Amino acid sequence: MSNLERITNRLEPLSAQLKKEGKDANQRVVMAVEDCLLTTIDDKLRASLYAACRTTATLHGYADYLPKSGQRDANNALSPAFTAIKDSITSFVVAGLTHNPDALVYLFRKKNKENIIYYTEETLVDFLYNSTTRRLEDDFKNKVWDGQLESLTTNYESHINESNETAQEDN
Fold it and tell me: What is the DSSP code (8-state) at residue 107?
């Protein structure tokens, strides 16, 4: 895999977010990403531009769309799906808590180093997202899932239809 391919994979979630934002995206970040992906530059310059791009993206609030230090590249194939999943889970939690803010009172976490036992909106989103992505990464590695959201939707609909048919047969 070439340096260009590696950096393209690393910037995929950020690029997807910038495309999603369209004209509202920060233009400095857009230009930094474009500079990293130029085909006419050498690897040394590309590495420098990538470091500058990470700094620019972080300064302008896009750190969540950059790979963490030591993150494996295998996840980058799943980044578009994971970005959509994160947005969906966040919307789900926010809508649920807007409708019933007391729900956090009844949900308990395991005690942790800080002795925090209650969820916040953010920690609940993180928990749901992390557990979902762990399972999906395993499914992807084991070739149970192809990395596409459409297949998750199809599998879910099939499961619901089978459950409804079983319930009707039992009645």
Answer: -
